[in-house]
Every structure is written in structure tokens, then in C-alpha cells.
Design brief:
The complex is a heterodimer.
Chain A lengths: L1 H6 L14 H36 L3 H6 L15 H8 L1 H34 L5 H10 L5 H15 L5 H25 L3 H9 L4 H12 L1 H17 L2 H6 L7 H7 L8 H22 L14
Helix pairs in contact in A: 2-14, 5-8, 5-11, 5-13, 8-11, 9-10, 11-14, 13-14
Chain B lengths: L1 E11 L5 E11 L3 E5 L6 H9 L6 E6 L2 E2 L10 E4 L11 H11 L4 H14 L15 H13 L5 E5 L7 H18 L2 E6 L2 H7 L2 E6 L2 E6 L1 H6 L4 H6 L6 E10 L3 E6 L2 E6 L3 H7 L5 E6 L4 E4 L7 E11 L4 E10 L11 E8 L10 E6 L5 E3 L15
Parallel strand pairs in B: 3-8, 3-9, 6-7, 7-8
Antiparallel strand pairs in B: 1-2, 1-4, 4-5, 9-10, 11-12, 11-14, 12-13, 14-20, 15-19, 16-17, 16-19, 17-18
Helix pairs in contact in B: 2-3, 2-4, 3-4
The chains are: A mainly alpha, B alpha+beta.
Chain lengths: 301, 386
């Protein structure tokens, strides 16, 4: 928690310029202190439940039912990795974990690839009806996912996609695209026109412009989109619950199946939930390095 | 040999705004042509049409004698330098310059060689490893120009390449660009709103206004015999003084020009006097640059106007004196504003006229310009060929 607060500290020049008065310096420091305090509180709010989940996943079932996770501070010896060992050994859970991968990775890759291609065309290639098409595609954002469940389920049934991983992926791709195109098109359209035209004058084809100018410049937007899309698909329960069968169920569905009316089953749930959190966290950490500011710096005046 | 030609080219935007109207223009091989005009006059649109980035609404762009309408920008063999440089921010200077070579599939060793060659020609040989963000404005512009010529283009287009740089850099680069273009034998179309750039760099100037080609010719000719009032006012610093004069013909003797309450006479044998004589009983516009004016002793004879010193501008090496001779000024934009026309007189800095003082100004008749007030056209024989 301290670490989080450290990272976002706003640099206030400590020595300051001589013209700054005592009052403004005091308020500056005070403001800085408040900011850190505020961020620390936010961090605590977010981290305490996660921490609780982690501890719960590390205690056995009896301990979890007998006392709350916070008692761990007085009895650290209770901690064990047995829950994880059991979970990984459980073939069904392991399979659902893999299923999540099989769903999330293609659903993310397809959306990012298709959306970036579409966004390039919608922002930089002139063709009749471009504006209308853009409005229609982005307008699909208002379509709630729930209204499509039953019609699409019927459609999938007719095509033999119901209960398959392909079906789940296709649904995610279809419903991920409007937002993805909205996000990327806005970013692409913000790339200076001269940059695209310079590439055109340098002899580049549209494909080369896309690959060698637009994609590198749009890294931050593509990284954000990747993270968003991956998280949504990874954490999705509704779509998988409707379209996946027992063999293609992802971890979210598998964990839900562990819920019992009587008894908490907390050792399985906490462990599974924590395990399923690690991957998105890793994805986030990998892609966040692309969130560098000023990618376009130096390109134009 | 004509490298670039425009044939009755017009560009109308979907909203109906006309950017370029029936412009015909030809640029010879190896010629440095400057398109000059105020912002919004259509000069950049012309450049974009030659580049292939914009399709003309009517008319034809001809490159090397062949219509270029259906050739996409990337295949025209035309390079362009953009006003705001447009360097690829994620690539080093070397890769920026090498980009056109990569695209055309240039072999590796040749690529390195040509990058080094062009970079050293522009004096950025030691900056090849840097990113554009780490360059100064002048260095960025050099990198952009290096990228534009590395491929050996047939035609180089430049869209106000110096307008984002400070004054000192600008004058240095001006000479450098002109020199380099000539030594490489490049055909250049150069767009600017800066008349000094036009005068100093161009083989020929095309002056545009509201999408129409107003004047076209060698810089000296355009300066000395501007085709219209607008061109006259646009070229030259300080600006040409333009004022209204009433024409009265005394047949076989002279043509009297009534300027305010004063009169100057054009002798009848003067060819231009005959042309001006057609405006007998009407008003015309008279233009005088500072070099047509010199101080005159009060009461001196000849074409002398007297007036009051309104305003002084000390430039160090010279002093510009605005003299109000009681004439109506003329605005080339067509609005005949009711303001006084002032003559701008150039005097030695040691001469210090006082504001409000009465001075005499001698006008050199040969260097006066006469314009029709209705259409702004020059009156009289042009004295030059296009």
C-alpha cells in the first residue's frame, strides 16, 4: 500500500524558486500530503478485500469457517498452499482455466486486429459512405448484450456453434468490436494528417502506412484496448454461462458451479478467484509499459 | 521540357467553397517556382493536387507531359516537405530518411550509403541516431528535406517549409535550399506567403489570390511591373503606397493627375500617359514604391507633392517617413476605404524629420504604377513578356 502511494507521488520542487512565498509552500506541501493520504485510502479500500481473498485461499477449510482471515496476524502458522495444490490437481478446474485462455486470447487478438484495420479504413481511407458506416458501427455500442443472447443462441444452435469455444469467442468479438473501433478510430483520427500524407508521398501503400506508421504511433491506444478487451472476456460470466457447455466452460462458470446453498466452499472459491486474477494482472503489467506519454512528440511542430 | 503543368485546374470543396479557379501554370524542368499568396489563396491546394493528395474538380495535372490524374500519390515520383515537418516520431533520423528507400525496396548497403550522403548534404550527419523529439526545429526541417530528396524525386514540393522556424534560421535555410535545389537540378514547387522568400529563391513566381492566378513571371518582372494592385501591394517591403488620382487630359500637352489638392503632370509622349488618358474624367489608383520617391526641397519644380510627416519608423540603417499628401488611399481588397493615402519615404537615418513637419516628395514618373480602380489591373503596356 505504501508502494502505491510512493509511485504516484507528485513531484513538488522542494527547494522551490525563491519567489514562492511561505504560505504557498505550506499549502503546496499540505496539498501534496492530502493527495498521498487520499490515494493511500483508495488503495486500502481496493486492496483489503483482495488481501483477504489471498489469505483465505491460503488457509484450509476448517480454519476459514472457524475464524476470519484477519486472525492470521496472530496465527501465521495456519497458512498453507494445499488449496492451490488441490485446485491444480482437479482436472475439471484446470480444464476450465485453460478454456478461459482459449476464449480470452483469440477474442482479444481478433478484436484488436479487426478493430485496428477497420479504424484505419474508417479514419484514413476515403470511400463512399464512410461517415455513415462509422456512425452505424459506433452506434452499435448502445446495443445491450442481453437482448442478443436468445437470438444469437438460436443462430448458434442452427450452425452448431452452441456450446463451443468458437461460439463464445465469436460472441465476444462481435460485441467487443463497436467499442474497440470507437476507441481506436478516435485515436487514429487524431494522428496528424501530414504524417499519413508524408508516408503516402514517400511511396508507401496503405498497408505499409498502417503497419509502419499508424500501428507504432498508436501503441498506447492498442495497449489500452488489449487490456480492456482481455479483462472483459477473462472476467465474463454471462456470455459463457449462456453459450458454453460443460466442456467449454471457463473458470468463471466453473467457480460459480462451486457455490453451495449451504456452506461457503470458500477454500475452492478463493483459490480459484485468486488464480484467475493473476493472469489479467500479468497482462496489465506487460502492456502498461506502452502507456508512455508523448508518442507523437517531435513528429510535427 | 515541362516537368509539371496545370491545365485549367479548379478545385471546389463539397461545401461549394472554391479553393482554386481555372489555374493554368507550367513549371520547366529544373526550375524553382514559388507559389506566393496570402493564406487561403489556394496555393497549398495546388501543391496537394500536384502531389496527388487531392483530386482537382476540373482540369488536369500533367507530369512530364503525361496526364497524372489516375496516378496515386505514391507512384508520382513527387516528394513533399510539409510545413510542420511530419517526421515519423517512432523512427530515428536515419530511419526517417530511409523510409522512402525501404518502401521502394532499396538494397541495404545502398540504403546506408544514400542516407549518409543526404544527411551530410544537410549537415545532420551526426544526428542520425536521434529521434525527432530530440531535434531542434531547424534540424527537424533538415531531416524532413533529406527524407524528401533521398529517393531522387522528379519534382520536389515544399509547403511553407520555413514558416515554423525563427527568423535567423529562416534566412540561412533559404539560401541553403535554393542552392541545393539548383545543384541537384531539382524541379521545385515552393509555397509561401513570405514575399522575401519568393523574391530571393524563385526562378519564377506565381502570385495567387482567392484561388486565381494574379501574376506570373520572373521575380524582378513581377516586382517591377505587377499585373494587379494586389500583387503590387503584396510584393515589396515597405508596402507600395497606393492612392487615388483624378485624371484630366490636356490633349497634346500632358495628362494631369489630381492627387488630393495637388497635381502632377505626365508628359504626353510617355506611352503610359496615353493609356491613362483613356480614364479622362475618372479616378485611377497610383502606386509608388519607396524607391520612386525622394525628398525634395520645398518649392522644387517637377513631380513634387508636399505633405505633412505623419509617422516615423527608425530601422537603424534607414528611416521610413510616412507623408500625408492629402490623397485618398486605396485598399487593393476592393474596399475603397476612406483613409488617407500616405507616401512612404526612405531617408538617411541621420536625417530626422519631425512629426507634423511639411516636406516635399519628388516622384520619379517612370517608376509610378497605374491601376484601374474597378478591376485592379495595371494600366498601360506591360513592358514584358510572360
Amino acid at each position: 500500500m505504501t508502494l502505491v502511494a510512493e509511485e504516484v507521488r507528485i513531484e513538488v520542487p522542494v527547494s522551490g524558486s525563491p519567489r514562492r512565498g511561505v504560505l504557498s509552500r505550506v499549502f503546496g506541501r499540505l496539498g501534496n500530503g492530502f493527495m498521498q493520504l487520499f490515494l493511500a485510502v483508495v488503495a486500502v479500500f481496493w486492496l483489503v478485500p483482495v488481501f483477504g481473498l489471498l489469505i483465505a485461499s491460503l488457509r484450509d477449510e476448517q480454519a476459514n469457517t472457524a475464524s476470519g482471515w484477519w486472525t492470521i496476524f496472530t496465527k501465521p502458522a495456519e497458512l498453507t498452499l494445499r488449496n492451490y495444490a488441490e485446485l491444480v490437481a482437479n482436472q475439471a478446474v484446470w480444464q476450465s482455466f485453460l478454456n478461459t485462455f482459449y476464449i480470452a486470447v483469440p477474442a482479444t487478438v481478433l478484436v484488436v486486429v479487426m478493430a485496428s484495420l477497420a479504424s484505419y479504413a474508417l479514419s484514413w481511407i476515403e470511400f463512399p459512405g464512410r461517415e455513415t458506416l462509422t456512425v452505424v458501427v459506433v452506434g452499435l455500442l448502445v446495443m445491450p448484450i442481453q437482448v442478443a443472447l436468445i437470438p444469437v443462441a438460436k443462430l448458434f444452435g442452427a450452425f452448431g456453434l452452441f456450446g463451443t469455444i468458437t461460439g463464445v469467442v465469436l460472441f465476444h468479438v462481435a460485441f467487443g468490436l463497436p467499442f474497440a473501433i470507437f476507441l481506436l478510430r478516435n485515436f487514429f483520427a487524431g494522428i496528424p494528417r501530414d504524417l499519413i500524407e508524408a508516408a503516402r508521398m514517400d511511396g508507401a501503400t496503405e498497408w505499409v502506412i498502417f503497419k509502419r506508421v499508424v500501428l507504432p504511433v498508436a501503441k498506447p491506444a492498442i495497449a489500452s484496448l488489449t487490456i480492456f478487451q482481455f479483462l472483459w472476456v477473462w472476467n465474463d460470466l454471462l456470455v459463457a454461462l449462456v453459450f458454453a457447455d460443460q466442456d467449454s466452460a471457463p473458470i468463471t462458470v466453473a467457480l460459480r458451479a462451486q457455490l453451495r446453498q449451504f456452506g461457503t466452499n470458500i477454500d475452492v472459491l478463493a483459490t480459484g478467484a485468486f488464480l484467475s486474477m493473476i493472469v489479467p494482472l500479468a497482462v496489465f503489467l506487460v502492456f502498461q509499459k506502452y502507456f508512455v506519454q508523448g508518442v507523437l512528440a517531435g513528429s510535427t511542430k | 521540357m515541362t516537368a509539371v503543368a496545370l491545365r485549367d485546374v479548379s478545385l471546389v470543396y463539397p461545401g461549394g467553397a472554391v479553393a482554386v479557379r481555372d489555374v493554368s501554370l507550367s513549371v520547366a524542368d529544373g526550375e524553382f517556382m514559388v507559389l506566393l499568396g496570402p493564406s487561403g489563396c489556394g496555393k497549398s491546394s495546388i501543391l496537394r493536387m500536384v502531389a496527388g493528395l487531392q483530386r482537382p474538380t476540373r482540369g488536369q495535372v500533367v507530369l512530364d507531359g503525361a496526364p497524372a490524374d489516375d496516378i496515386p500519390a505514391r507512384s508520382r515520383g513527387v516528394s513533399m516537405v510539409f510545413q510542420d515537418f511530419a517526421l515519423y516520431p517512432h523512427l530515428s533520423v536515419a530511419d526517417n530518411i530511409g523510409f522512402p528507400l525501404d518502401v521502394s525496396g532499396c538494397p541495404r548497403d545502398e540504403r546506408a550509403e544514400r542516407i549518409a550522403e543526404v544527411a551530410s548534404a544537410f549537415g545532420i550527419g551526426d544526428l542520425l541516431g536521434r529521434r525527432p523529439a530530440e531535434l531542434s526545429g531547424g534540424q527537424r526541417q533538415r531531416a524532413a528535406m533529406a527524407r524528401a530528396i533521398v529517393r531522387g524525386p522528379r519534382v520536389l514540393l515544399m509547403d511553407e517549409p520555413l514558416s515554423n522556424l525563427d527568423a535567423v534560421l529562416r534566412s540561412g535555410l533559404r539560401a541553403e535550399i535554393a542552392c541545393l535545389a539548383r545543384s541537384l537540378g531539382l524541379t521545385v514547387l515552393y509555397v509561401t506567403h513570405d514575399q522575401i522568400e519568393a523574391q530571393t529563391m524563385a526562378d519564377r513566381i506565381a502570385v495567387l489570390r482567392d484561388g486565381v492566378l494574379d501574376d506570373f513571371g520572373r521575380p524582378d518582372d513581377v516586382y517591377r511591373h505587377p499585373a494587379t494592385m494586389h500583387v503590387a501591394a503584396f510584393l515589396g517591403s515597405p508596402r507600395m503606397s497606393l492612392f487615388k488620382a483624378y485624371v484630366q487630359v490636356v490633349v497634346d500637352s500632358h495628362v494631369a493627375l489630381h492627387i488630393g489638392g495637388q497635381v502632377i503632370d505626365l508628359p504626353w509622349p510617355d506611352m503610359r500617359a496615353r493609356a491613362v488618358a483613356h480614364y479622362d474624367g475618372e479616378d485611377i489608383a497610383v502606386g509608388a514604391r519607396t524607391e520612386a520617391l525622394r525628398p525634395a526641397a520645398p518649392g522644387a519644380s517637377g513631380a513634387v507633392l508636399t505633405g505633412q510627416v505623419r509617422h516615423l519608423e527608425h530601422h537603424g540603417h534607414e528611416t521610413l517617413v510616412s507623408v500625408d499628401v492629402g490623397a485618398w488611399g486605396v485598399e487593393p481588397s476592393g474596399l475603397h476605404e476612406l483613409r488617407t493615402g500616405e507616401l512612404t519615404l526612405r531617408v538617411h537615418p541621420d536625417v530626422r524629420p519631425v512629426q507634423g513637419e511639411h516636406v516635399g516628395v519628388h516622384l520619379c514618373l517612370e517608376q509610378l504604377h497605374f491601376f484601374d480602380l474597378d478591376n485592379g489591373r495595371r494600366i498601360g503596356p506591360r513592358g514584358r513578356r510572360r
